[in-house]
């Protein structure tokens, strides 16, 4: 497993070791002991989520606040997405920075997103199955979000934003400067 730092504090790219043979492939998508040893991060994941999206679907940018902040370990089971992380931690030297990474069923990459970051992704393939672990439970009242095309963040989604499919909830998210505090 390779651990690659990103421009966002404590946000890491994880490249698992994949064993290919005549049957297909095998890899450990998560191993708590290896993860802690290799990253130095102790995290206890307590919820797993999975979503299916079609091409052009953009989900995000989402985070949870207060006692329901979430660290996430995200990956793609099928298809390809552009994954986006935004640092919302005011005491972080990467505050306000964004990081983008292609995740796919052929590069097997994962992203570890620490608490205090917003997250989103845009589907590039015909469909994508996205899976992630969270270290805190979903709590509707604690949801926060930022508009995907916020001009200050100026995220390059590498896609025609006139063609994205966004939920009604995500279309009316606030700008970065008005985002609800962590
Ligand atoms: C996220 C979530 C949603 N739900 C419900 C609420 C709603 O009725 C339905 C769909 O929810 P959403 O529209 O918020 O789903 P979605 O837009 O896929 O939300 C996800 O987006 C990505 C980018 C993230 O980072 C995740 O943390 C999560 O916020 O599922 C749960 O029951 N548990 C959960 O953990």
From TrEMBL:
Keywords annotated in UniProt: Isomerase
Biological process annotations from GO: dTDP-rhamnose biosynthetic process; polysaccharide biosynthetic process
InterPro entries in the cross-refs: RmlC-like, RmlC-like_jellyroll, RmlC_Cupin_sf
E.C. numbers: 5.1.3.13
Catalytic residues identified in the record: 62, 132
Pathway as given in its UniProt record: Carbohydrate biosynthesis; dTDP-L-rhamnose biosynthesis
Catalytic activity: dTDP-4-dehydro-6-deoxy-alpha-D-glucose = dTDP-4-dehydro-beta-L-rhamnose
Gene Ontology MF term list: dTDP-4-dehydrorhamnose 3,5-epimerase activity
SUPFAM superfamilies: RmlC-like cupins
Similarity field: Belongs to the dTDP-4-dehydrorhamnose 3,5-epimerase family.
Role played: Catalyzes the epimerization of the C3' and C5'positions of dTDP-6-deoxy-D-xylo-4-hexulose, forming dTDP-6-deoxy-L-lyxo-4-hexulose.
PANTHER family: DTDP-6-DEOXY-D-GLUCOSE-3,5 EPIMERASE, THYMIDINE DIPHOSPHO-4-KETO-RHAMNOSE 3,5-EPIMERASE
Assembly mode: Homodimer.
Protein name, entry field: dTDP-4-dehydrorhamnose 3,5-epimerase
